[in-house]
Write a structure and sequence with these properties.
The protein is α+β, with helices and mostly antiparallel strands. The chain has a single domain, classed as Orthogonal Bundle (Arc Repressor Mutant, subunit A), CATH 1.10.10.10. It is 60% helix and 17% strand. The chain is built from five helices and three strands. Strands 1-3-2 form a three-stranded antiparallel sheet. Helix 2 packs across helix 5. The model has no long low-confidence stretch (mean pLDDT 88).
Length: 114
């Protein structure tokens, strides 16, 4: 496992929620492929990481699940609930603050006026 994967893992739920906010509804495999596409293959989400995160978000009331028959198979689609939409906004603000703080730590001169 790449070291970066450990950093991403802590943000997995936020990543899922942001994608669902943008796309409306998605199924599991679609989420993994979209993340791989967006990151140019740098980030690969395994099913072993994805589905526990989806189930946790669903249990917390942030996701609705709907079943749809596609090509004779049942496919589970995930969509944000109203509380999920609010939580996504909150988590994105937290993530942006975290990134800003990390930039300040990594590049101390980042926020200093000369």
């Amino acid at each position: 496992m790449k070291k970066q994967q450990q950093l991403y893992k802590g943000s997995l739920s936020t990543i899922i929620m942001k994608l669902l906010e943008q796309k409306g509804k998605m199924y599991g495999y679609e989420i993994t492929q979209k993340v791989k596409e967006i990151t140019g293959g740098e980030m690969n989400i395994t099913e072993g990481a994805l589905y526990p995160a989806l189930h946790k978000l669903e249990a917390e009331g942030h996701l609705d699940v709907e079943m749809e028959k596609v090509d004779g198979r049942i496919r589970k689609y995930y969509r944000l609930t109203e509380s999920g939409e609010k939580e996504t906004v909150s988590r994105m603000e937290e993530l942006e603050n975290f990134i800003r703080n990390m930039q300040t730590i990594v590049r101390p001169d980042f926020g200093v006026d000369l």
